[in-house]
Structure formats: structure tokens, C-alpha cells
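ok so heres the complex, two chains, lmk if somethin looks off
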Amino acid sequence: MKKIYFDNCLTSKTDKKVVTEMIPYFTEKYYFPENFVSIGTQASSDIDKSKKIIADSLNVDKSEIHFTTGGTSANNLAIKGFLTANSNKGTHIICSIIDYPDILTNASFFEKSGFEVTYLSADWDGRINLEELKAALRPDTVLFMTTLSNHTMGTIQDMPKIKEILSTSDHHIYTHVDACEAYARMHIDPKEMGIDMMSISAHKIHGPQGIGALYLRKGINLGQIKHGIDRIDRYETGGISVALIAGFAKAVELAFDNLDEKIAYMRNLSNHLLERVQNEIPHIIVNGAIGEERICHNMNISFSFIEGEAITVMLDLMNINVATGSACASKGLKANYILMGTGRTHEQSHGSIKFTFSRFNTIEEVDYTVDKLKEIVQTLRERSPLYTDYKNQIKENKGE
Amino acid sequence: MNTQYSQKVLDHFMHPRNLGILELADVKATEGSPACGDQVSLYLKVNPKTMVIEDISFQSYGCASNIATASIITEMAKGKTLDEAEKITWKESADALGGLPAVKMHCSVLAVDTLKSAIKKYKIEHHLIEKEKFSKDLILKELRSVVYPNVGEDIVSLKMVKYLSFDKGVVTIDLDVPSFDPMRDNIAEEVREHLGKFPEIKDIKLTM
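and the predicted structre for the whole thing:
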């Protein structure tokens, strides 16, 4: 059996067409932009074309796209750049306890340097608490940040509603969104959604690793985070690989070709997995919203009485790759903060498995995985003292 | 297969030895807790004349290395007398598995702790020993079961325990852990879990 990869939220396979697109930039067109010389002008024009493709996918102007060395770089540029240049407008920022680490670590960094941060809570399904958002707005609130589709639970935040709430303020509260998970898996129109800044990344959508972009609404100035020579972008100074930029654009072109069809395809994979697991494996809970409120390629399920690292290792031995929220698999031996933050017990977080699909996955792969998963869950439950306790409890109750 | 686990760990994980519930067990012990991590249960059948562990089995709620360490412990203890089995250290059990990643050493500690606790329980129930008197030394002994995940050694051997006192049910501990250490919360949790089993301890004051 060939490898089955269901961890596309971590990173995804580079499309062969993307690789083909990039090769000439390594072998023949290995130039940086430069004025008045043909090779440099060619590079500028190629970068411009790539920018246009990405801008079109978001219905924004190409001058609003800034290439960065990845999603995290884009998040840092947006948050640090914005707050250092706009602290005169206020020093209160809002995000939520379930945001992507890029947002949370930046928030905590600014908290230490004198900013105040309100961390919104989230409900069981991973929706941030909008009543708390309403109550959190202050005259000195400058920035609201959110993760468009949660990287663990797949829940999409209600941007129209958020825009409505933020607009009740007497001053403009800027919005930064991490859309690395959501981009090319749903339609995103930053202008319509009231988004001022937004990070996207190539390697999660079958583009190359090491390249991302920040959408920065026209008129917003950022402080300089990375000083140096302005080669390709005035914010992300120094060289940025023109090959990676071309690869990113190609990946976007491919992803947005019949996007609705691709979304439906990935949603079908997640729904099929969920349906089979719900019908065939008892004692599970779904993590995150279901239906249209959930990003199409994500499914996250907790299996009671057992631990997720053991499941992932067994699946790995069968050539299937998934992710888990178990403390045992994390660097700091900590349970997943999103699952815990949305009211799950340690055991529920411990037993969680995240499947993230791509257009390269097939329904056969899903079926094969569920078949194996059924065996694994049963095997591990037979080994678990918690499952024994549970069965004894049932027996006792029946005896009464 | 290239994982951080040795072949031996994967073998014991995929094909655990002495798995399940021992119906005729003389003693059962459970350590760990699902509230903050893994759990191991061990069942022992002991020959009352020779004190030899004639049969042993385990159940585990935990990761691959948790299952593998519990499995190897049953293999190592089977056929040994209680006194011999009690001397098995967590390092020996990790070595028997061809080593464990440092961050997983606490799994072998849990397996060995469960074995020790089962043996002690048997000995107390059969009036072979008296229940150990609670003291500061006992706390220190227990802290030897808390592994610093960054290096896979216990916090007492690493001299991370800077201060320890016990007075009127309150344990005061000061640990030397760098402020930037991502394992801080984990170590605190482990310390609280280990000391939580003593009813004599009413409160733990932990500083780092």
C-alpha cells in the first residue's frame, strides 16, 4: 500500500506542475529584479504576474500583496509591523484563546511590552465568543486578530458578524486574519469580510515550502520589522526566491481552477470519514463545528479510552499519516490548548486525531484508513484499563 | 521504519506481552491518571511459599512507549521473587527496550512505579512489611520518579530540587527550572501528581 497522507494542514505535497513551473527559475531565469537591464526587468515582470494571480484569487489589487518567506513571516510582519507603527492609536488588542500560535505568541510578546490583550473564549465547537467581543471593544482598541479557520478544529469564524460588531466602534479597529488554513479551501474576499491584513501560505495548498504572502489593505502603513535592502518587497527585505514566488502563483492558479468543485471534493472526503466513523466506531466525539461552518478539508475526532500518539504510531506503521492533539506527541508534553480551551477533558484531547485532506486524496484512501482505524481503536481499547472500567460499570448498572 | 522509537519498542507496542486482566491475580495496582496523562494497571500472581511472581499481566492507557514499557516490565518481572523484581529500575527497563527518547523516559518510570506499588501492596496485605511511615525522605524518594523530560533523568539526581520541607501537611518545594523551559508546566504537573497520592499532604507549595 502506498503512503496515505492526511496531514495536509501541516504541509502538503507540491504539485508536479508547480515544480515544473519553478525549474526554469533555478536553471535559466535565476535573476532578481533590476532596472533597465533585460534580465532584471523580466524578473520584475514575472513577479508582477505572480502577484496578480494571487491578488485575483482574493479579489484585491496586486499592490496589496506582499511576499514573505512563509505564513509565520506574514503574521509577524502584520502584527509587529502594524502595532509598532500604530501604537499612538491605542494599545489594546483582541484575539482568542484558540488562535494559531503565531497570533498568541505575538500577543503575549506585546503584552510584555505594555499592550493589553483581551483573549476571547470559544464555545464547544470552536466559535469565538462574539458577546465577549462586543464587551471587549474600547476606545483604545487598535487591533482584532483571528484565525479564519481554526487549525485544529476546522471551525470557520463568522467574519460578517465580526465585521458588524467591530463597526459599532466609534473608530476603526483593524483586523488581522491568519488564513493559512482557510486559503483555497473556501472563498475569501478580504474587502467584503472587513479584513485589513491577512496571511496566506503556499505549502499548505500544494505550493513550495518557504513562501507566503501578506494581504495588506491599501493605505495601511507598517513599521519596518526586517531592515535591509529592498529587493522584492520593501517589508520583506533581502532576497526572496523568485522561483518560489512563481511556484506559489502556479499553486494558486491550480487550486482556484474550479475551486468549488475542489471544495466539494474535499468536503466529501471529510464527510465520508465522519459518517463511517460515526456508524462504525462507538464512543467518539467530533471536535469542531460540522457542515458549512467547518472548513472542507478538516475532520477532528476524539476516541474515548485511548491515547492519540499510540493511534498515530500504529497508523504510521501502516503508512498512514495523521495528527493528534495528545500531550504525548507534543513537544512540551502538553495537551492541545484548543481542545482543552473549548471544554474538553484531558482524556478527550489525548484521544483526538486530526485528518486534513487535499485534492490528491481519494475516497479509497479514506475507506482504507477507516478500516484500519476500526481495528486499531478496538486493539487499543482492549489494552486500556479505562475501557475495562467502563465495561465493568455497564455490567454493574445492568446488575442493578 | 524510521521513527524515534527503537525496533524493540515498536515490537512490544505492536505485540505486547502479558496483556490483559489476570483473573486469579493476588494483587492489582494502578498508577498514573487519565486526568493528566497515562495510566498503567498491573496484575500479579505470587507463589506464597517462594515469593516468586508466577504470572503477571498489564493494561495500559497511553502512548506507544507507555504500552511498550509496561509490556517489557511484565517480561522482566515474571519468574523473579518480589525482592528481586522490586529492584528493577526504570533505567534498566528503558535499556531493555533498546533505549527510549528522553521525553518518553517518564513512561518507564510509570511502569516501574506500578510494579513497585503492586509488590508493596502485596507485601503489606500479607504482613511482610509495615506501611512506610510518612516522612520528608519518602517525599524525596517519590520525587525521584519525576523525570526531567529534556534529558530523561529524574529531578533529584539532576539536583533540581533546591529546597524541600514538610510541615503540618504542607510540602514546600523549590525547583531549579529555567523560566524559558517549555517543560515547566509539565514538571509541575508531574510533581503534583506524584505527591498527590499521599493523604498526609494537604497542600503543595511549588516554586521554580
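quick notes: Chain A has two domains: 16-256, 258-399. thats all i got rn
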